[in-house]
Amino acid sequence: MSGWPRSVPLGRVSGIPVRVSWSVVAVSIVGSWILATDVFPRFDNGLSLWWRLALAIAGVACFLGSILAHEFGHSLAARRHGIDTSSIRLWIFGGVAALSSPARSPRAEFQIAVAGPAANAALAAIFLASAVLARRTGMPEEIGTVVGGLGLLNLLLTVTNLVPAAPLDGGKVLASLLWARTGRQEWSRLISARIGLIVGAGVILYGLSDAYAFTNFTGLYTASIGVFILVAARADVISASVRGRLAATSVGEILLMHPPAIHDSASLTDIGRHLGPESVSVPVQRWAQQTIGYFTTASLSDVADVDHAWTSVGDLMTPTEFVPSAWTTETLLAALERIGPNPPQLLGVDPETGVVLGTATPRQFAHLMAQPILWGGVTREANSGIPDG
Q1: Nearest Cα residue to 95 out of 80, 124, 125, 73
Q2: Is 71 a catalytic residue?
Q3: Within this chain, do residues 238 and 256 fall inside the same structural domain, yes or no?
Q4: 28 with 10: CB under 8 angstroms?
Q5: Does residue 79 form part of some domain?
Q6: SS3 (DSSP) at 154
Q7: Domain assignment of residue 377, yes or no
Q8: Which tens digits make up the pLDDT trace of 264-275?
Q9: Full domain range(s) for residue 142
């Protein structure tokens, strides 16, 4: 059984799949009912329950539409820079546009980040002007209240999203400006993420104090928003720290240079004795020193110990044409983004001669992938250097 779906598909808009979480559906139903049965009756304009429900549902739908407009702002701006959006999802804390890749320049990062709040700012102006018009033309007070409330909510979305702290849009704007000034993309993201940690902790404390002082659920919801900001900022700290290390390391720096070659007829027992338990990649030769593939000692665990004596290296090697390669001068980040985050083995090729100079396995750059401390400093693992081959 696949289980109950976690979100409801709303269809495609401009080719982008849109889904909404069940939490949003539940909150929308409750919010519509509260508006229709508690808020609107205070105006005493004689509207029936059905009319009040219709007006409440329309207001909630327009608010969700405002969040969608925010995410489509990001998506359309990303499309202008050659970045696709795989999906847009609405959930209890807003919306998420899943972009296929990060921005490739500070200019793109800035324009994509600011497009969402800009959409809400435009909607705020439209709704607030419409609310003034509704009051001047004598429309029912409930309509003016809903439209004016939508204007204020869009204004709130604009302001809060521009707070310069990751994961908010303002954090991306800040990172793009720092990136443009320093040329250091991941350092800029790290600064924004650190501010996000502080903002998230502050929102949590404010929400908890509000809940304690006024004994209502509004403060708890505020605190939960703070938790979301804190967790997302921590994820950005990890990402920026790891990507920064990889961007500062060339492929040549992590290679096991000129590894010893082995014959394809050698048994796994012989290889285990010769190379030991460490994970390395070595060339496999057949005759006349012709390399026909590469063998990683990590594959020894794929074969039962009792079969090592009659299983040869040639049975487990990867043909040369199927082993990913990278220039030794290429950054490790660029190489892994191109070939995948965790290749079983990697060849380092001299860009001038085209000759394979060395090999690498994930063990040789695992220290660069170690999670940073909370603030994003260098851990002992990340500072330990490359293990001996």
Answers
A1: 73
A2: yes
A3: no
A4: no
A5: yes
A6: helix
A7: no
A8: 999 988 887 777
A9: 1-162
Last residue of a domain, which of 206, 229, 248? 248
Cα atoms in the Cβ-side hemisphere of radius 13 Å centred on 90: 24
What mean pLDDT is predicted for residues 3-14?
76
**Domain ends where: 197, 213, 248?**
248
Domain shared by 129 and 212, yes or no: no
- Is 383 within the bounds of a domain? no
Closest CA to 317 of 332, 305, 302, 336: 302
Query: DSSP for 227-271?
Result: HHHHHHHHHHHHHHHHHHHHHTSBGGGG-EESPPPEETT-BHHHH
Cα–Cα distance measured from residue 1 to residue 19, given in angstroms and rounded to the nearest whole number: 21
Q: Tell me what pLDDT residue 387 has.
A: 37
Residues 244 and 256 in one domain: no
Give the number of domains in the chain.
3
Q: How far apart are CA 170 and CA 195, in angstroms?
A: 11
Residue 378 lies in a domain: no
Quote the DSSP letter at residue 93. T
| 3-state DSSP assignment of residue 75 | helix
**Structural contact between residues 188 and 182, judged by C-beta atoms closer than 8 angstroms:** yes
Mean pLDDT score of the chain, rounded to an integer?
88
Is the same domain home to 201 and 305?
no
In this structure, which long-range contacts are made by residues 132-137, counting pairs with CB atoms below 8 Å and at least 24 apart in sequence?
none
CATH number of the domain where residue 351 is located: 3.10.580.10
pLDDT digits (tens, 9 = 90+) for 123-134: 999 999 999 998
The single residue of 71, 109, 186, 330 carrying the catalytic annotation is: 71
Closest by CA to 73, choosing from 128, 28, 20, 13, is: 13
Own/partner contacts of 111-114, CB < 8 Å, gap of 24 or more, are 111/77, 111/80, 111/81, 112/74, 112/77, 112/78, 112/81, 112/83, 112/172, 113/74, 113/169, 113/170, 113/172, 113/173, 113/176, 114/169, 114/173
The per-residue pLDDT for range 178-194, each reduced to its tens digit, is 999 999 999 999 999 99
Q: How many angstroms separate the CA atoms of 288 and 340, rounded?
A: 33
| Cα–Cα nearest to 197, from 178, 220, 171 | 171
pLDDT in tens, 246-257: 999 999 999 999
DSSP class of residue 183 equals S
